[in-house]
Amino acid sequence: MPFTTSRGPFPATRMRRLRASAFARDLVRETALSPADFIFPVFVLEGSNQREAVPSMPGIERLSIDLLVAQAREVASLGIPALALFPVVPAERKSLDASEAWRSDGLVQRTVAALKDAVPELGVLTDVALDPYTTHGQDGIIDEAGYVLNDVTSEALVRQALSHAEAGADVVAPSDMMDGRIGAIRQELEAQGHSNTLIMSYAAKYASSYYGPFRDAVGSAGNIKGGNKHSYQMDPGNSDEALHECALDLAEGADMIMVKPGMPYLDIVRRVKDELKVPTFAYQVSGEYAMHKAAFQQGWLSQEAVMLESLLAFKRAGCDGILTYFAVEAAKALQ
Ligand code: PBG
User: Which annotated residues bind Mg(2+) (predicted)?
Assistant: First the structure.
């Protein structure tokens, strides 16, 4: 028996009409990804011609400066605007006061200079925090009880940020969550003639368990004294507090703010963007990368489609840009 419908009433709106052809889907798509949305986090090693895989982050390598410069050329040629630089500091250079962090010829400072010399058009972000430099793996200077001292740490971060700016960093990115450090860094940058150095604040950074592979990559795994960073990173149960943090960092002189981690916190990105309407970034962190890669390697998820969908979600939530270990792969997929 042929299938028949009665004539009407027809749906007044057929949402499927605009989904029926590729041209129409292209025309009405609200959000799109481009390589210009990405910042690529990289890990730098001492030495030359050194390359080390990070086991929990398949496809990501720690590179010595010479190899990193070569990678930076590729990153720039793909249309990715910037790198975020993280050092792998040899154990013998770590200390209680983290003074290696602001040495003018430290690993980060030399890397920034080499990158800006070789690929000047590529933006360089530096991480301002003491965890790669402390023997205990905390982001700041601790008292006898292991408590991270706010104002003493902030002074150290000011020195570190200034040494990055002097080396030529375009953006300093404090990821430590001390109170008042954005204002202190901004004042010092202004006073020392670096009024155009940008600050991207890790403003709403949560005490997340998704950072494990990163701590592996920079070699701070296993040695975090006290076992967690709960006395300065945010409680994952909080949302209003993220707005308070972002508003403070903006008032202190941050140019851009960041929410971290990314996918589990896109609700925070949306609130921040709606309320504050400022350049807003999020970090798809190491654990997010690792879990995607694990599923890709098992053949459980389709690599390119899922990678791009995960990144599109950040844009749809309101991000102006995304720090992601997928930056190079995604930019290639988008060419
Ligand atoms: C440390 C820092 C961390 C990350 C960026 N900067 C780790 C932490 O706070 O313990 C994590 C990035 C990632 O997981 O990809 N200041």
Answer: 245
Asked if pLDDT for residue 140 goes beyond 70, the answer is yes
- The enclosing H or E element of 246 equals helix 240-251
Residue among 89, 108, 157, 175 to mutate when testing ligand 1 (max atoms within 8 A of CB): 175
For residues 53 and 299, what is the distance between their CA atoms, to the nearest angstrom? 21
Residue 22, in any domain of the structure: no
pLDDT tens for 206-235 read 999 999 999 888 887 456 878 899 999 999
Determine the structural domain holding residue 113 and report its residue range: 32-334
Judge whether 1 lies within some domain: no
| Residue 150: inside a domain | yes
Number of folded domains in the chain? 1
> Kindly report the CA angle at 297 between 291 and 298, in degrees rounded to 5?
95
Ligand 1 closest atom vs CA 41: 15
Q: What is the atom index within ligand 1 of the atom nearest the CA of 323?
A: 15
Read off the amino acid at residue 305. A
pLDDT digits (tens, 9 = 90+) for 9-66: 899 999 999 999 999 999 999 999 999 999 999 999 999 999 999 999 999 999 999 9
**Which of 95-99, 173-177, 222-226, 279-283 has the weakest average pLDDT?**
222-226
Tell me the CA–centroid distance for residue 215 and ligand 1, in Å.
Answer: 7
Cβ–ligand 1 contact at 324 (below 6 Å):
no
Atom of ligand 1 nearest to the CA of 127: 6
102 neighbors 232 (Cβ within 8 angstroms): no
- The Cα–Cα gap between 288 and 89 comes to 24
Which helix (H) or strand (E) segment holds residue 202: the answer is strand 198-205
Q: Average pLDDT of the chain?
A: 96
Give the residue-averaged pLDDT of 240-253. Answer: 98
In a domain? residue 85: yes
Cβ–ligand 1 contact at 129 (below 6 Å): yes
